[in-house]
Design goal:
It is a single chain. This protein has one domain: Vaccinia Virus protein VP39 (Rossmann fold, 3-Layer(aba) Sandwich), CATH 3.40.50.150. The chain is about 35% helix and about 20% strand. The chain is α/β, with parallel strands linked by helices. The structure holds S-adenosylmethionine (SAM). S-adenosylmethionine binds near residues 22, 25, 68 and 133.
Length: about 210
């Protein structure tokens, strides 16, 4: 009990000094950090298996990913053509270096305040990103840009649950996204939810949500 109270107090203090989601990730990569446990090991392989199957069975020609991260997850998936976007310059630099000889992949810094891209690719991806969008306006812009960037499909790998922020780290905020999507994007329907595997750290399960343009 005392441990739980102390942990909640520490988390509250950390939230107060949290620099914001974009700055958090840029600092993390700048210090040599990576995209986190969901981008490595069995979690990365699980995501890759689902995505490789989807790309093949739906004849996806091109893909845009919002929050491409350090590129490790990406290295396990075969996309015919790929554009990786991320708010962190550090992440983009890592990907540019890792995929230097790969003509099928491009990477660009993403600025939520200036992004205007529409119908960029058959499939738009958000993989393990929504839980890190702690600011309301950043969360809303992420969904808006994700759905406007897709021609045919949107895939979100996330947890559609609301959790008390006192129970999570400063860079994590679990919130429901399905109600928001259903209200804001009526020309898209949720075609399928595919159950994920148990989480890397404590927290809810993460699932694949596949949306199709109606
Ligand atoms: C947990 S990593 C996931 C990386 C990759 N999608 C994967 O599955 O391995 C989250 C990434 O989202 C990026 N990110 C954070 N906020 C973002 C935003 N508003 N738009 C795009 N990317 C963002 C971070 O910089 C980080 O690279």
């Amino acid at each position: 009990m005392a441990v739980t109270v102390a942990r909640r107090m520490v988390r509250k203090l950390r939230r107060r000094i949290f620099p914001g989601s974009a700055a958090y990730w840029d600092r993390r990569y700048g210090k040599g950090g990576n995209s986190g446990p969901g981008s490595y090991g069995r979690y990365a392989r699980f995501k890759a298996e689902f995505l490789n199957d989807l790309v093949t069975t739906r004849s996806i020609s091109d893909v845009v990913e919002f929050g491409c991260g350090d590129g490790h997850q990406l290295s396990l998936v075969e996309y015919p053509e790929y554009l990786g976007l991320d708010v962190s310059e550090g992440a983009i630099a890592l990907c540019v270096r890792s995929f230097a000889g790969d003509q099928t992949k491009r990477f660009e810094l993403y600025d939520p305040d200036t992004f205007t891209g529409a119908e960029i690719a058959d499939l738009a991806l958000s993989l393990d990103v929504i839980l890190h969008l702690v600011e309301d306006d950043v969360f809303e812009l992420h969904l808006q840009h994700l759905f406007q960037a897709a021609r045919r499909y949107v895939v979100i790998y996330g947890s559609d649950v609301d959790l008390d922020r006192a129970d999570t780290a400063a860079h994590v905020r679990f919130r429901r996204f399905l109600p928001h999507i259903q209200e804001r994007f009526p020309s898209w329907s949720l075609e399928r939810v595919s159950e994920g595997i148990a989480p890397a750290a404590e927290g809810p399960r993460t699932d694949f949500f596949v949306f199709q343009r109606v």
